[in-house]
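Protocol step 4 of 6.
Sequence for Mutator family transposase (Athalassotoga saccharophila) entered exactly as in the expression construct, tag removed. Do not edit the line below.
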Amino acid sequence: MEKKRLMSKDEIRKFIKDNDIKDIAGIEESLKRMFSSVIEEMLEAELEDQLGYTKYDYKSKMTDNSRNGKSKKTVMSKYGETEIEVPRDRNSDFEPQVVKKRQRDISGIEDRIISMYPTFRTSLIRNNIFHIQLPKVLSL
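Step 5 output, structure tokens:
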């Protein structure tokens, strides 16, 4: 049985060129940055779902709660320590599920997130955030 490629050869070459990857360390650093970006987008999607409107779409806003910036958080994954920005809401009601409050170890979800990258679109992550098969500790 042939393995399904996550990215085409052209996409891989473009990724290598765009990220100036020259060695294994470059690959690891690029994956770490990609991982952080996807986690942050998933957190944004969670907040958007809770608030009920997209960023800057004030016409659809049906709540007195709103976005209130972001806070930095260092988490530990199989890529080592990674800094992410977690969105906040004004009423402090937001309880993220992808990376819970006070959670630091997020090992185990990297492979599932990385597998989403080839078709990484904001809408894809927003539509699939609650369908990722997470370990029991991280279940949504």
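Step 6, annotate. The CA atoms of residues 71 and 86 lie 5 Å apart.
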